[in-house]
Amino acid sequence: MSNAKDRIRASAERAQSAAKRVPEPTPDVIPEREQPVAMQSPQPATKKREQNVVPPLQRSVRKNVDLSPDQNDRLGDWQRAAARDLGVARVTAQEILVVLVERLLADETLSNRVKRDVLARR
Q1: What are residue 92's phi and psi, to 5 degrees?
Q2: Higher pLDDT, residue 16 or 107
Q3: What is the rounded distance in angstroms from the CA atom of residue 110 to the CA atom of residue 104?
Q4: Which residue intervals of the chain are DSSP H helices?
Q5: What is residue 88's DSSP assignment?
Q6: Helices 69-86 & 93-106, crossing angle to 10 degrees?
Q7: How far apart are CA 32 and CA 8, in angstroms?
Q8: CA nearest neighbour of 32 among 19, 44, 20
Q9: How far apart are CA 69 and CA 74, in angstroms?
Q10: 7 Cβ contact partners less than 8 Å away, ≥ 6 residues apart
Q11: Distance between CA atoms of 45 and 10, rounded to whole angstroms?
Q12: pLDDT at residue 40, rounded to an integer
């Protein structure tokens, strides 16, 4: 029990120390309207200042799926058969879903078929 408690405490401490390490923005990153008057550079009102745009973090997004016991069993059977056919130790559900999503987004015919199937299930 204390092991879980220690892990949670360590995780919280890491998060706090990471928050303390966030650097303060430099004057060239702060939009002019937020800079103190002493730091603002004189510019004509007609000229717009380019603002530095920080791209969003590129992180994977987790999606969950609920399968019936029968679907789960059949998917597991398919995964094991695919692994044997491919000569690999295993084929994960993650790999399968990523490939399926890529195909869904790339193939308009498949996309339309999936839409019809989704509508039919409602």
Answers
A1: -85, 155
A2: 107
A3: 6
A4: 2-20, 69-86, 93-106, 108-121
A5: S
A6: 90
A7: 41
A8: 44
A9: 9
A10: none
A11: 51
A12: 55
